[in-house]
Amino acid sequence: MKIFVTHSPKLGNAKAYLLREILVKAAQNAGHEIADVANAELVLIVGDDLPHNAQLNGKKVALLNAETAFHNPEAVIANAQQEAVDYVQPVGVAESAVESVANSGVKNVVAVTACPTGVAHTFMSAEAIEIYGKKQGWNIKVETRGQVGVGNLISPEEVAAADLVFVAADIDVDLSKFKGKPMYRTSTGLALKKTAQEFDKAFAEAKIYGGEKVSTSAEGSNSDEKKGVYKHLMTGVSHMLPLVVAGGLAIAMSFMFGIKAFEDANIAGGLPKALMDIGGGSAFHLMIAVFAGYVAFSIADRPGLAPGLIGGMLATTGGAGILGGIIAGFFAGYVVKFLNDNIKLSQTADKPLDIHLEVCSNRSIEKEMPMLKNTVS
Fold first, then answer.
1. Which pLDDT tens digit goes with each residue over 27-44?
2. What's the whole-number mean pLDDT along residues 48-66?
3. Range of the domain at 195
4. Where is the domain boundary, 53, 87, 121?
5. Domain total in the chain
6. Predicted TM-score (pTM) of this structure
7. Where is the PTS EIIB type-2 domain (predicted)?
8. How far from chain centre, in Å, is Cα 189?
9. pLDDT tens-digit series, residues 289-321
10. Is 159 a member of any domain?
């Protein structure tokens, strides 16, 4: 018998994937053939409710309990063959937001993923989003903002054609190129574990992005503030991490010549000492400054970066350590944010600088003209 295995909308992606693999293997061991939905003679649906899917019309379907399917898949499949019924679309259940929008012609989706470390969740959530999008028949492209930089860059043409911008980020990321597009923001964890549900919400709740910073949650001011503090810290950590890795690697390479080889400049031509200076003296010395700078950047955007870097360097040179860096980053960020929010400069505030530069330029030209004339003559 040709069998197609799917799951109800409320079942999480991870659990659905695991159960599908178990059922597929059990079905194949029993001599059944795994087919696509169009050619299937029996559709096994794992979960508590039927999906709203027009492709199942006219198919024999069996609703399976997830726990029973996990512990005894062979018996579940055997019972399903006997108890399967003709599929009837759920009465009174509205078509999901994703299906309704997709059916109305929405096909182009772009996504951005980013996590604090820029390693695991960034790429795992990107893969989950891409797989789900392709299953829906969308044109989907996922841009990753990881430790190695921007991967799979979304072009301006793709942004212009996008019907939805799906952002799964646990840190602040630059989204300016998506200004004016419908955008939905969530976390990498939800995008990874509940991809279908998040896309349902995305099409229902997406709002036009105007270039402002958007919070990923709206659960109350206290909750937002706690998540904001965590987010600022993680932004600092994510930018500090490359220095930690590079510095640690340089120190480890120095230890290859001996634990105390860096103390003798004559060993291996001074290479162990140079590696220790690079790792411990330079990379680790910058670590707290970069951390504080990007904490301030997360709070106050670009104006907070320089004060945060300076505060972090002061914490390093003053021996205040990482706690000093945390204090410096938050202090610099919130002070700059306060100043930006309360001091409004006129659009002509930078004119004196322009005039000064123009005067200096004219004087320089006047000064050089006699020399040029003499050279020509």
1. 889 899 988 777 888 888
2. 78
3. 108-209
4. 87
5. 3
6. 0.46
7. 109-204
8. 10
9. 999 999 999 898 889 999 999 999 999 999 998
10. yes
